[in-house]
C-alpha cells in the first residue's frame, strides 16, 4: 500500500498545485487525504468529471501549472467532451494528469456494471491518444509513474492518464458521523422505508446508484414484497431522475418516485430544469441528502451548503418550502405534495451511515429485474 504523504509531497515538489475530481472507492485514501490536507482553493470536489477537467483547465490557463484530475473510470464519459474539445493537443493543448480508478479491470471479478467500462478504459485512452500507464502497488513504482505522467504532460501539452487498480491506495476509513452527534435523526434506510409506507402500494420507484439501491432491495425482501416496482440504477450516477422522468411521462397513471442522492442530483443538476418544464404530474423527486459521497468514502458534497429546495422551485417543482428532517414531517410533505399535481421535490436531511448487517446487493440477473419491472409497468393502476 502507498503512503499518501509521500505522493502528495512529490506532487507539490513537481508543481502540481491544484487537484480536483469526483471521489472514487478505488482512490478512497487519495481522496480522503486531499480533502483533509489541502486548502479549498487547491482541492475541489467537482460536481462531475467533466466539470473537474474544466476547473483544471482554468487553473492551467491562469498559472501555467499542471493540475491533477481524479475520477472513477465509470465517470470517464463525463470527462470525454472537454478532454477532446478543450484540452486536446490539437485544440488548446492543456497539460493535466488524470488519476483514474480502474473499476472492472479484467480478471478482478468486479460488479457487472463496472465490467464493460473496465475492459474499454485502456481502449478509450488509446483511441483518444492519451498516453497512460498503470500505477504499481509500491511507493517507488507509484512515484515513478507520477514522475512520468507529469513530465509527459508538460512535454506533450496534453492530458496523461494513470490507471489505478484496486489495492494500490489502501482503502481509508469512511468519514462516518456518530449518529448521536448528527443534527439529523433519520438514516437513509429509515427514510426510504417511511416513503414506501406512506405512498400507494403500486408506486414505482427508481433508486440511484450506491446505497439507496441496496437498501430498497433489502427492504422489499424483509417485508416479503417483490422487486417488480423498483428500478435499481446500479450505474449511470446522476441520471436516476431522468430515468424516472421518462417513466412518468409514459405511464401517467402510476406514481413515480426517484430516490436520489445529493451527490447524484448535484452531478447533473440541469436535469431538474428539464423535469420542471416537462411537469409530469405523477413524479416525486426525493433527494436523500447526507452531505457526502458516502458510498466511496464519505467525502463532502455541497448538499448541506446549497438550498436544493429553492433550486427545485426555480426549476418548476412544487415543494413544501424547506428541507424535511423527521419522519413525521416527511410523511406530511409526501401527502401534501401528492394532493396536487407534480412534479414535486423533497430534500430529506439524513445522517450518514449504513446498517452493519445489511448484505451487499447481489443480483443474479439485471435483465430479469428489468423484464419484471417492465411487465409491472404494463399493469393498470390499482385505484385506492
Structure, described:
It is a single chain. The protein is of the alpha/beta class. The protein has two domains: 161 residues, 3-Layer(aba) Sandwich (Rossmann fold), CATH 3.40.50.970; 190 residues, Rossmann fold (3-Layer(aba) Sandwich). Helix content is 42%, strand content 15%. It contains 14 helices and 13 strands. It has a six-stranded parallel beta sheet, with helices on both faces. The protein has a five-stranded parallel beta sheet with strand order 8-7-9-10-13, with helices on both faces. A two-stranded antiparallel sheet has the order 11-12. Helix 6 links the parallel strand 5 and strand 6. Helix 1 packs parallel to helix 6, helix 3 runs parallel beside helix 4 and helix 7 crosses helix 8. The longest helix is centred in the middle third of the chain and has 18 residues. It is elongated and about 65 Å long. The model has no long low-confidence stretch (mean pLDDT 93).
Amino acid at each position: 500500500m502507498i503512503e499518501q504523504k509521500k505522493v502528495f509531497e512529490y506532487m507539490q515538489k513537481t508543481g502540481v498545485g491544484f487537484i480536483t475530481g469526483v471521489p472514487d472507492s478505488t482512490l478512497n485514501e487519495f481522496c480522503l487525504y486531499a480533502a483533509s490536507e489541502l486548502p479549498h482553493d487547491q482541492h475541489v470536489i467537482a460536481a462531475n468529471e467533466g466539470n473537474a477537467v474544466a476547473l483544471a483547465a482554468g487553473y492551467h490557463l491562469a498559472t501555467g501549472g499542471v493540475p491533477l484530475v481524479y475520477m472513477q473510470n465509470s465517470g470517464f464519459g463525463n470527462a470525454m467532451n472537454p478532454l477532446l474539445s478543450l484540452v486536446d493537443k490539437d485544440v488548446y493543448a492543456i497539460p493535466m494528469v488524470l488519476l483514474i480508478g480502474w473499476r472492472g479491470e479484467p480478471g478482478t471479478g468486479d460488479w457487472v456494471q463496472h465490467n464493460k467500462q473496465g475492459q474499454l478504459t485502456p481502449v478509450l485512452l488509446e483511441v483518444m491518444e492519451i498516453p497512460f500507464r498503470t500505477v504499481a502497488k509500491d511507493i517507488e513504482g507509484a512515484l515513478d509513474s507520477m514522475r512520468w505522467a507529469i513530465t509527459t504532460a508538460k512535454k506533450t501539452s496534453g492530458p496523461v492518464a494513470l490507471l489505478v487498480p484496486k489495492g494500490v491506495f489502501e482503502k481509508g476509513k469512511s468519514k462516518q458521523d456518530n449518529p448521536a452527534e448528527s443534527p439529523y435523526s433519520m438514516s437513509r434506510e429509515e427514510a426510504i422505508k417511511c416513503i414506501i409506507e406512506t405512498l400507494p402500494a403500486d408506486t414505482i420507484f427508481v433508486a440511484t446508484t450506491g446505497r439507496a439501491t441496496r437498501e430498497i432491495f433489502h427492504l422489499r425482501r424483509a417485508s416479503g414484497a417483490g422487486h417488480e416496482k423498483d428500478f435499481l440504477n446500479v450505474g449511470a450516477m446522476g441520471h436516476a431522475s431522468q430515468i424516472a422522468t421518462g417513466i412518468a411521462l409514459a405511464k401517467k397513471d402510476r406514481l413515480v418516485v426517484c430516490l436520489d442522492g445529493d451527490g447524484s442530483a448535484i452531478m447533473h443538476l440541469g436535469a431538474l430544469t428539464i423535469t420542471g418544464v416537462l411537469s409530469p404530474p405523477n413524479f416525486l423527486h426525493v433527494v436523500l441528502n447526507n452531505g457526502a459521497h458516502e458510498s466511496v468514502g464519505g467525502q463532502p458534497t455541497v448538499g448541506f451548503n446549497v438550498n436544493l429546495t429553492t433550486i427545485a422551485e426555480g426549476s418548476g417543482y412544487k415543494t413544501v418550502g424547506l428541507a424535511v428532517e423527521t419522519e413525521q414531517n416527511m410523511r406530511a410533505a409526501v401527502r401534501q405534495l401528492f394532493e396536487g399535481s407534480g412534479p414535486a421535490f423533497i430534500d430529506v436531511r439524513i445522517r450518514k451511515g449504513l446498517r452493519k448487517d445489511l448484505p451487499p446487493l447481489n443480483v443474479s440477473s439485471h435483465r430479469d429485474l428489468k423484464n419484471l419491472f417492465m411487465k409491472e409497468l404494463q399493469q393498470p393502476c390499482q385505484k385506492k
